[in-house]
Design goal:
By secondary structure, the chain is mainly alpha-helical. It has helices at 20-41, 69-92; strands at residues 51-54, 60-63. A hairpin with a 5-residue loop joins β1 and β2. It is extended. 11% of the residues are buried.
């Protein structure tokens, strides 16, 4: 069971009264934003299957397509680096008051 509908089937056959266009448009915007960041990291060639899609429920999906283990490792490292920088920046904005 997938209560959040994240792994719902793709909408191969459209059903009446399901707002597919809105879900696909949301996915397209997210896909474009991700593609821009992947280009900035030099990883765009590792995501040749990146595309927007929609589920049978009309929920937008961002499909990464098949990626190599090396590409997955580089993406994981980029995410970890970004999180570490964000945490370091967050820590720097809150002075340590425990010694006071």
């Amino acid at each position: 069971m997938d209560p959040r509908r994240v792994i719902a089937s793709r909408a191969e056959e459209l059903a009446p009264a399901v707002p597919y266009v809105r879900g696909w448009a949301d996915a397209k915007r997210a896909t474009d934003a991700l593609a821009e960041q992947l280009r900035a990291l030099g990883l765009e060639s590792g995501f040749l299957g990146l595309k927007a899609d929609v589920s049978v429920f009309g929920d937008g999906l961002v499909c990464l397509g098949p990626i190599s283990p090396e590409t997955a490792q580089l993406l994981a490292e980029a995410i970890a680096t970004g999180l570490a920088l964000e945490m370091a920046s967050s820590d720097a904005s809150f002075p340590d008051t425990s010694a006071a």
